[in-house]
Design a protein that fits this description.
With about 675 residues, the chain is mainly alpha-helical. Among the domains are: about 1-95 and about 195-265, no CATH class; about 105-190 and about 275-345, Zincin-like; about 395-400 and about 410-550, no CATH class. The protein has helices at about 1-45, 45-55, 65-105, 115-130, 165-170, 175-190, 190-220, 225-230, 240-285, 290-300, 340-345, 360-370, 380-385, 400-405, 415-430, 430-435, 440-450, 455-470, 470-485, 490-505, 510-525, 530-550, 565-575, 580-595, 610-620, 625-640, 650-660; strands at about 105-110, 140, 150-155, 160-165. Strands 1-2-4-3 form a four-stranded mixed sheet. Strand 3 (about 150-155) and strand 4 form a beta hairpin. Residues about 230-235, about 375-395 and about 670-675 have low confidence and may be disordered.
Length: about 675
């Protein structure tokens, strides 16, 4: 399945290139049309523009037509389009996924601050995220929207948010809501979100021309342009001709704006439809329940409002929604989503074509209340149950070698077993830890406790650093939670970090700065922090920084690893030394390096395998193509498996390194399917 993940990532990158090409063609067409309109206006308005054109011959043709006016109109149009697109792009990048959600009228949901409907929605999103191996995204509720719809927005999983309409949250059953959220997580994993946001920015410039034309036309009407035209007839007609020019330009811009809107719709349709089918199929794979997402689509077909949104900004974001959110014409040429009937039949080929009756909002909310806020229904599968011990706690021990050795196959491909395991994992955590992780004050205490090393000497140095940098109430809460944190299974530590992210993303800027300083104190304490704790801190920093700092998503610069041999050797050498002597490290490195026959890599001395060097190597490797990063993850798994046993700590370390390489890996479960 990892191959599918890499193919989907490559497809998203190709779609981005295709979008740029279509945008360029649309801009060329519009600039050419504006230049042509300008030319004909200049030619027709001879009496007014004779001085500009240099006079006319006996046949009425310009003797020395000034083409600079035509070129100037084209250049001005190009500047308007590119400028508007650039400004919109900057706005979107500064706001990220949260900015898009708020622009659509969304209000962020916080744990324990809403009713049963809101809590169920938060639970579903959290469990889906932990099962996928991605950070838990903030959830936004579009309170005033009764249409059944949802979306995911952001430039990367670190920046992602999930938005859900009130109609979706209240009307759908638990299984149906799971299907919708799984569909949106597919967009997060497949790299579709960045393309969606870029599409909004690119098309803004094209649509702006129509807005300018409408503004000019309204200005002409409201300023009494028609009466001034009549008055100007007595003064030689030059004023009337000028007014006609303004009117002609405004009408031309309106027409070109309409043409731009149509072309923008075609661009969105050309890119979006295929991705919706893919996301539907991924949701079925994730939930193993075609009736979930299929039922949600049927609810939309039966609802009076369907999936329509009332927000003024809904049209520009129409390609981001789970279902059609705005009217997109009668022909279907500009439809961003396939017809509901076709989507349902692709999921349920035996569907009889009948849409079910949609319950009233009050009845749906009552049903949710009766069922409780639990995000998932149904019991654990045999595979997932095998990883859970008595009283619902994760089983201690090791992870089977075949599962870890094929770990890269599960990147970006979570299944129902992962989903069920995530639910049980959350249930196994102490309630006091979950409550603390869900609010900003407690989340900092949980993170500080998780990053404390097991070595007493290192922990003493870390606590001394926290005494100087952390707020006293946070330290006190950390000490109170420390026994529960120390008892948390290694397999639950990375998910617990992910659970704290929504709360940490609501810190104020001064709080974030202080929190970051404390993280550095914990990592730098005595320079002997364990690799696992260091990885947790790096994962946290990677997903938190985009919320407060200007961090660009890493662009692909390397399509092969030939120039990255030093970085590959650094990562493999560091992992090879984990938990073994030099002889074992040599064997682990040898097994891992076999994955790169094109590279001449050698085991580095132990003293060269610092955490700083590892961080630099991982940062550089994030600029490699997804398939190449997957090869690195595969080699890391081979290094861990060399000694014939993989502890839970080592398995979660592999997941952490995979996360730092932007390869989201679901939990590694005993009994999960592996390739033969």
């Amino acid at each position: 399945m990892a191959t599918d993940f890499y193919k989907r990532q490559d497809r998203a990158r190709r779609n981005t290139s295709f979008l740029v090409l279509l945008f360029a063609l649309a801009v060329i067409g519009i600039v050419g049309a504006v230049s042509a309109v300008t030319y004909f206006v200049l030619v027709e308005q001879q009496s007014t523009l004779a001085p500009l054109a240099g006079g006319y011959d006996a046949m009425g043709r310009p003797e020395s037509f000034r083409w600079d006016a035509v070129v100037g109109a084209g250049v001005l149009t190009l500047a308007v389009i590119l400028g508007a697109s650039a400004v919109k792009g900057v706005q979107l990048r500064s706001g990220g996924g949260a900015g898009v959600a708020e622009h659509l009228g969304g209000m962020r949901l916080y744990p324990n601050s809403g009713g049963v409907v809101e809590q169920r929605l938060l639970n579903v999103v959290e469990e889906m995220a932990l099962a996928s191996g991605v950070p838990v995204p903030p959830v936004y509720l579009l309170e005033d929207e009764q249409g059944i719809n949802a979306f995911a927005a952001g430039y990367s999983p670190s920046d992602a948010v999930v938005g859900v309409t009130r109609g979706c949250a209240e009307t759908l059953s638990r299984d149906e809501l799971q299907g919708v959220i799984a569909h949106e997580f597919s967009h997060i994993l497949n790299g579709d979100m960045r393309l969606n946001i870029r599409m909004i920015g690119y098309l803004q410039g094209i649509l702006l021309l129509g807005l300018i034309g409408q503004w000019l036309f309204r200005a002409f009407i409201y300023s009494g342009g028609g009466s001034r035209r009549s008055n100007s007839r007595g003064s030689g007609g030059s004023g009337g001709s000028a007014i006609l020019v303004v009117l002609a330009v405004s009408l031309a811009l309106i027409v070109l704006g309409a043409l731009g809107s149509f072309m923008g719709g075609l661009i969105k349709a050309a890119i979006s439809r295929e991705r919706e089918y893919l996301a539907d199929a991924s949701a079925v794979q994730f939930t193993r329940n075609p009736g979930g997402i299929g039922g949600a689509l049927k609810r939309i077909g039966a609802a009076v409002t369907g999936g329509r949104l009332k927000a003024p900004a809904a049209a520009e974001a129409s390609h981001m929604f789970f279902a059609t959110g705005v009217w997109e014409g009668l022909s279907g040429l500009t439809a961003t989503h396939p017809p509901l009937e076709k989507r349902i039949l692709a999921i349920e080929p035996d569907w009889n074509g009948v849409f079910p009756e949609t319950p009233a909002a009050g009845q749906a909310a009552s049903a949710v209340g009766a069922a409780g806020a639990m995000g998932f229904s149904g019991g654990l599968s045999v595979a997932a149950a095998a990883t859970v011990g008595a009283a619902g706690r994760p089983a201690e021990g090791s992870v089977p070698l075949d599962v870890v050795d094929h770990a890269a196959e599960h990147i970006g491909a979570p299944t129902r077993e992962h989903r069920s395991y995530a639910q049980r994992l959350i249930e196994s955590l102490p309630e006091e830890l979950i409550d603390a992780a869900h609010e900003p004050f407690g989340a900092r205490a949980v993170i500080y406790g998780l990053l404390l090393d097991r070595d007493p000497a290192v922990r003493k140095a870390q606590l001394a650093g926290l005494a100087q940098g952390a707020e006293a109430p946070v330290r006190e809460l950390m000490h109170k939670l420390l026994p529960a944190i120390d008892a948390v299974d290694h397999r639950a530590r990375l998910p617990l970090v992910d659970m704290t992210l929504p709360a940490l993303k609501s810190l104020s800027t001064p709080q974030y700065v202080g929190f970051g300083n404390c993280l550095r104190l914990l990592v730098e304490a005595d320079q002997r922090l364990g690799l696992f704790e260091w990885t947790l801190g790096q994962v946290l920093s990677r997903h938190l920084r985009p919320q407060y700092e200007k961090v660009r998503a890493p662009a692909v610069q390397y399509y092969g690893l030939q120039k990255l041999g030093a970085q590959v050797a650094q990562v493999l050498s560091t992992l090879a030394y984990v938990g073994g002597d030099d002889t074992q490290a040599s064997a682990a490195f040898s097994d891992a390096s076999c994955h790169f026959p094109e590279l001449d890599v050698r085991l580095l001395p132990r003293d060269q395998c610092s955490l700083t060097a590892l961080r630099g190597a991982l940062d550089t490797l994030t600029h490699a193509a997804p398939k190449q990063r997957g090869r690195v993850v595969d080699a890391c798994a081979a290094a861990i498996c060399t000694d014939g046993e993989v502890t839970l700590r080592e398995a979660e370390l592999l997941r952490g390194v995979s996360d730092l390489l932007d390869c989201p890996m679901p939990p590694l479960l005993a009994g999960q399917k592996v390739a033969p």
